[in-house]
Amino acid sequence: MGLSSRFPPRVEYLQLALAVALPIHIWAYLQFFSQASSLVLRLTFLEILHVLAYVLVSSLLDVLVLAGALTLLAAMLPARVMRNHFLAASSLIGLWTCIWAALFQFADRVAILFTKNAAFAYPIVLAVFILIYFVVALPGMNLARSSSLIQKLVSAYIDRVTILSGLFLLLDLLSLLILIGLNLV
After folding, report:
1. Where do the domains of the chain lie?
2. What is the model's pTM?
3. How much helix, strand and coil, in percent to the nearest 5, is found in the chain?
4. What is the separation, in whole angstroms, between the first and last Cα of the chain?
5. pLDDT tens string 21-71
6. Angle between helices 118-146 and 107-114 (to 10 degrees)
């Protein structure tokens, strides 16, 4: 059994990247536009576009790292666990990871809500967040493997987000070229 047989087909990797690109980019745009009012007061229009380019390139990196990590996970685990239903299982885990990462950014605020001593509560909140991640991710992976309905829903989701996610990734690549050009000049 060769090494290449342990990895899923490239088409499924690309579909996974498109599936996780949408929530990553939505969160990146929300974070950028939540800071836009302060950026407008301090920066010129071109500098704001440069900031946006950095945001988009970091989103591209997030997509590639998440899709790559899930592909490596599928290659390391036994075929029956994830590789035989790679797209459904990895898409569900990828989407949950995106949701969890967005919520994880608020862990410090949750810690402050529980006690005045956030330094004490923060590690506890982090442990609870990590526990919640695995409590949802592991059964979700099993559900994707065993439920044809979930597999159909994931396939329908990927069909619907392909064009928008492709547009986001195209803008990411354009931003990367712009940043390379700016840093070489």
Report:
1. 3-184
2. 0.86
3. 90, 0, 10
4. 49
5. 999 999 999 999 999 899 999 999 999 999 999 999 999 999 999 999 998
6. 130
